[in-house]
Design goal:
single chain; mainly alpha; globular; WH_DNA-bd_sf; WH-like_DNA-bd_sf; Helix-turn-helix domain-containing protein
Length: 166
Amino acid sequence: MREHEVRTALLDLLAEVGTVTATEAAARLGHSSGLCSFHLRQLARHGHIEEAPHSGGRARPWRLRRRDSADAAPPGEGFGDLARGLEDESWQRWLSQREQAPSEWRQDEAFSAVAYLTPEEMNRVADVIRRTLAPYQDREQRPLARPEGARPVALITRLFPLLPDR
């Protein structure tokens, strides 16, 4: 099993349940607690997750990292190869397994476009997308805010200038 598969499964589990310890993740995912602990620490090191508040003891619960506007990295920064690799792997898994999803979830909304923009316009487009998604962001940390039937959905946007071929 590739490292990204374990990390993707851990991120998916955290999106589903909110917080998880390495032992809980191991029981849910069928891996050893040592392997889950290692990958949870790696995800934390790369800024994807953080330790959740707890009452002490040996158990270390983890959660997806909270990002607010003051904490968010500037556009283009803090979004490394690990994140892109996890996204790409999740997309490939979706493509290969979507027929196993419930019928109402078998479609996706993948699209792309090329637009001629100035750097300021590109930033404004990104801001509009962020504002559009903002009303749904609290559902990650507040499971009771999720409407019935809600599932985690990957929302991936990459805005970057196209460079000329050499």
